[in-house]
Write a structure and sequence with these properties.
The complex is a heterotrimer of chains A (287), B (262) and C (364). Chain A contains twelve helices and two strands. Chain A is mainly α. In chain A, 40% of the residues are buried. With 262 residues, chain B is an all-alpha fold. Chain B has a domain of 183 residues: MetI-like fold, CATH 1.10.3720. Chain B has twelve helices and no strands. The mean pLDDT of chain B is 89. The chains are: A mainly alpha (287), B mainly alpha (262), C alpha+beta (364).
Chain lengths: 287, 262, 364
Amino acid sequence: MSTMTLEDTERRKAWGFVAPALLWTIAFFVVPFLFMAAMSLWSRQSGQIVRAWNLDNYIAFFAKDSLFKGLVNSLEITLIVTVLSVLLAYPLAWIIAERVPKRFQRLALIMAVLPFWTSYVVRSYSWLLVLSKNGVINQTLMTLGLVSEPLEIASNRTATVIGFVHFFVMLLTLTIYANLIQLSPNYRRAAADLGANALQTFWHVILPLTLPGIMTGAFLTFVLCIGDYVTPQILGGNNELVLPQIIMLQLGRRADFPMAAALSIILMLAVTAAYVLCARWLKIERA
Amino acid sequence: MRDTLTKVASYGYAGLIYGFIFLPVAVLVLFSFQDGRLPVPPFNGFSLQWYEAVFADRKLMAALANSFMVAIVSSVIACLLGFLAAYALARYKLPGSALQRGLLIAPMTVSYLIIALGLLTVLNTFGIKLSLWTVGIGHVVINLPLCFAIIFSSMGDHHINIERAARDLGANDFKVMALVTAPMLLPSILAAFFLSVTFSWDEFIIAFLLSRFDVTLPVEIWSLLRSGLNPKTNAIGSLVFLVSVAVLAVLELTLFGRTKKS
Amino acid sequence: MTAPVSVHNASKTFGAFTALNDVSLDIKAGEFIVLLGPSGCGKTTLLSILGGFQSPTKGRVTIGGKDMTSVPPAKRPTTTMFQDYALFPHMKLRDNVGFGLRMRGMAKAERDDKALGFLDLVGLKASADKKPHELSGGQRQRVALARALAVDPDVLLLDEPLGALDLKLRRQMQDELKAIQKRVGTTFVHVTHDQEEAMAIADRIVVMNQGRIEDFGPPADIYMRPRSVFSAGFMGEVNFIPGTVKSADAGSALVETAVGSIALPIKSFTVSAPVAGQTITLCIRPEHFRRAGEAEGPVASLGEATVTGSAFFGTHYRCHLKPSAAPDLTVVAHMPQSAAVADGQIVPLAVNLADIVALPSGGN
């Protein structure tokens, strides 16, 4: 029998249980990330990766318009998508939570997110069917005689935004509904009791109380949207590339891993900045 | 009067958004039955030829099987590691436990593209060949935080004494976990597992960058897209959708219906 | 089976907080021991140390003569019955009770048989195939008892097992616990903060306060002859009257108090022999007051007192009195049902000398 106390033996066992998950995360997430960060400081010259430490890739990013424009496009599209999605999803979530009878709410919610269950790649593709030159919308408009030439709504930023908004409206409806439903009805009763009308109640009571939930949903939207390659690649055409597309270009045609790594780090910094802004803004709101 | 007006406005708005949400899916499914070469109007008539084409496509069927394998295996590993870590961090006082939790959750906040790229650079450096195994490793990385978070949050303090009682009656840690903790947390473990399966099943970028000869379904569909608008893509897309919805309906009616009652 | 339990100089600290302060205790095999005290007194910590859920910072625990200080719960001859019962919610009662036997590798048929026997012991044989959520609180409590006893422990540890039950059921369960303990002969160590429960079931009571043992003995001793002011107060209502020892010899001591001088026999000093000049506290239970002439044996007279309030309690009147000699003092005394007491009435106060306990003042 050793001199270890019961607590010591317990703690040793606990390390054994948590170790596999920690090691997995370190080996396949932390180490690769550090590798990539290191690689972003190397460069690729005449087909070879040169292990000389410098900031060339980052300098090139700010110098070359084709690269820098990718970040600008990404940020613009992501912001538009986030704002549009919240604005469209909030009323729907509110209607489901407030207007739909209790026993149909679960069904209404399941229906609102049903297209989640199409494959992600297929979901963007199916918007092509709707938006392309000979797609459903254009053919309908032409048959009705509203336009004579097909509208250019696929293969551009509009199509990308529509594809994204479609996905995130579903996601946000779910999160905002979850937020609304857990508010006590007594808040509303209290506000009404004190003389607030429906609009005042919403503006002064319901909205502030659901704001943290909205911000969480919005942040999630931001992260998923800015990092996505599939939707802009299928719907966006070749004119306004976003950062993930440019990263994939470095990997594919040019096999420029260091540049791809540098762009990934920049992408991550953008997400971190968004997080810090969100967190700070929320803190100010609450204070 | 004003009440009816808001009611009409509410349902009108909901109808519009539901229309927006369902439009592409409806078009997708409808034109998977297209009797013709283009999945766009006009609808020429009902045909199952594209479903036949899907089932006859060896590569597509192989990708389907691969996706299934990767999803199941990576989700089992993610759930197992997540459960063990959650058990250790919820039940024992370990130094730096907040840091450990942060580390385990961290991959959730990073884009899949970045995770895939990092893994790719490491695999390239060490000369490890890309395969379904490397895809699986990547999928465990993205699903482990999810499984850990779900299971950790369901480990309430009211379970502590129950586990103590089991230990007191002679169970070792593995027996406590297998016979007491896991059965008690079964709903959340299953939720974590099915969510992981869904994510892995549908994941594209990691599967795309970390696989070579054997690919998963989203990657195979991606290569189908190069042929442009094609009713066969509609057919495989509709198939995945309808099967997912059917599985979801069964789960909703059995598993989650049951947990609600007890 | 059954075994004696010893705790040697056990201390447990959590950072700056001392939960257990140099506690020593010897429990005989087959005893029903109650650890009694207010919340935070260290009784639950002591139980955890006996059960192996915590190890003492200092000191040792032996069970059946073997050192158990760093033996994990599974390897100790103890089982614990938890306050919240801690039944396995997903298992039938049969499987709950048979769990410990299963861990010991007993075959299914045999352990089912044994589990049924223990369910029978607690009167729940007919419910063997039910799950815990189908039971009432009292029934769950019985299952927890059956489960803990099924592995035939030497020592059963009970962590406030009756705390969640209503009063009537609690009284009933106390009787059952006591009867079952007699039948199985296992050493029981039971934690509670309810002194009536302690007196109802214990062979011996351990009164604890602030991590220390204040008193240890059979219920009647603890109640009638407490060894600390805390113990006297915790066991039931008591009047504390400060006093000073004027003189002391081998047989008795003269104590001066605000209500007069009393010659106390040496037996009244439960902690230490009196020393002249020592300040002490006299403890007198309300039911020990006698009206002059009613008392048997040597009596101390405390002079006259005025009734300032009274209430009828069924078995007695509970009266507040103001002694004429010390109007600042309030004394609580029980008067018989037949005594028609009225406010303002003046009554003589007397106490059997044997009923008075004198304790050193000033803490422990």
